[in-house]
Design goal:
CATH class: Alpha Beta
Order of helices and strands: EEEHEEHEEEHEHEEEH
Shape: globular
CATH architecture: 3-Layer(aba) Sandwich
Bound molecules: ligand PMT
CATH topology: Rossmann fold
Radius of gyration: 18 Å
Structural class: alpha/beta
Strand order of the largest sheet: 5-4-1-6-9-10-11-12
Amino acid sequence: NTDLPLSGKKLLITAGPTYEPIDPVRFIGNHSSGKMGYDIALEAAKKGAKVILVSGPSNQKISHENVEVVKVMSALEMYDACHKVFSEVDVVVAAAAIADYRPKEVATEKIKKDSEEFIITMDKNPDILASLGAIKNEQFLVGFALETQNEIEHAKAKIKKKNLDLIVLNSLKDEGAGFGKPTNKVTFIDKDFNIEPKELKLKEEVAQDIINKIVKHYE
Ligand code: PMT
């Protein structure tokens, strides 16, 4: 259907947590369910876009002919999957909660509980969105910011640092916002620092608002 507002456009959407392995049975992860990203992917597909959904471990399901799902585990795998397709997409929406650090060494066998204390040394993961922002041409880059304090200032700093066109701020201080829940409360901040707070809504509705912003960009 070529009448839809995003037909002819290709979106890369990231969703879910990353799992950073410690040994064959353990990992360091976070509370992202993937729902926010999957809802954005479905909304984009309904509006006619082709979608590559790069997803960390998640129980969310999606079925739409326009959506290709690429499943990954760790931040490094997500980095590779995103860079592989970046040159062919028009828009990136980064809803994934990516681990900032990963265990320096991954044990090949299950670690035994022999000592009273166990220390994990971590290496910094690459910032996927910043790495895409550094090489972008025409792409429209939408990031998320998950904050717990000084939300607006931190979100603005992320726009600059990651070379974004739009950031979707959600704060864990707001009831009903963030991880796992069916709802989210977000504030849009664009690259000129225009601030647009939204009501608490279902994630499906937040996804519609985000996709509408992208549609407006192309009008
Ligand atoms: O999955 P749900 O349960 O539905 O929850 C949704 C959500 C809370 C995970 C989602 O709304 C959200 O806020 N996602 C971003 C979480 C996050 O990691 O925010 P951040 O402020 O740490 O990161 C800022 C941006 O940089 C994000 O777009 C993130 O994808 C990206 N990033 C972060 C770290 C990193 N190493 N690489 C990145 O690309």
